[in-house]
Amino acid sequence: MTGCGGDLLGFDDNHNDIRDDVESYIETLTFLTQMQRNSMMQMAQVYQHLFKTQFYTPEQEINEVGINIIRNEIDLASNCMVHAFGSNTELMTSMVRALRRRAADNDTRADKVKEFDRLATMVFYNETHFDGTEDTCLFR
User: Fold this and answer.
1) CA-CA distances (angstroms) from residue 76 to 71, 92, 99, 103, 108?
2) Is 56 helix (H, G, I), strand (E, B) or coil?
3) How many CB atoms lie within 10 A of CB 119?
4) With left for phi above 0 and alpha for psi between -120 and 50, is residue 106 left, alpha or beta?
């Protein structure tokens, strides 16, 4: 492994849209089931997609389509985590927080996540509500 790198995207040597250091971290969580680790991998991919997304058009308008694509990915990944963790919401919440800290581990990444959070509140989104019973897990 070559490390996480200091830039926004870091290293992804196997080209699976998960930063290598984040993927390695998830793989060490052997107390989780494989399905739970897979759900975390899916959420890690969302962060990488967020880091790759341009939030503004060349005209400096908010890229509503890009923001909503990420929001949709978050909905799917969040539901996958609810599906994978079941009633163990305390563990899931802890893992979500740990993953966010790991993904946004430098100022550049943390600023990008904060900017997304800010813009996401400004853009209309027809949110899909899942209850955790539907399997939306895409990472296998």
Assistant:
1) 9, 15, 16, 18, 25
2) strand
3) 17
4) beta
Model confidence pLDDT, tens digit, residues 78-136: 999 999 999 999 999 999 999 999 999 999 999 999 999 999 999 988 877 777 778 88
Pairwise CA distance, residues 89 & 51, whole Å: 27
When pLDDT is cut at 50, 70 and 90, the band that residue 5 belongs to is low
Q: What is the CA 138 to chain-centroid distance, rounded?
A: 13
* CB distance 18 to 103 below 8 Å: no
CA gyration radius for the chain? 15
**Rounded to whole angstroms, how far apart are CA atoms 120 and 111?**
14
Helix, strand, coil abundance in the chain, percent, nearest 5: 55, 0, 45
Instruction: Tokens 């990420």: give the residue.
Output: 70
Distance, CA of 128 to CA of 81 (rounded, Å): 15
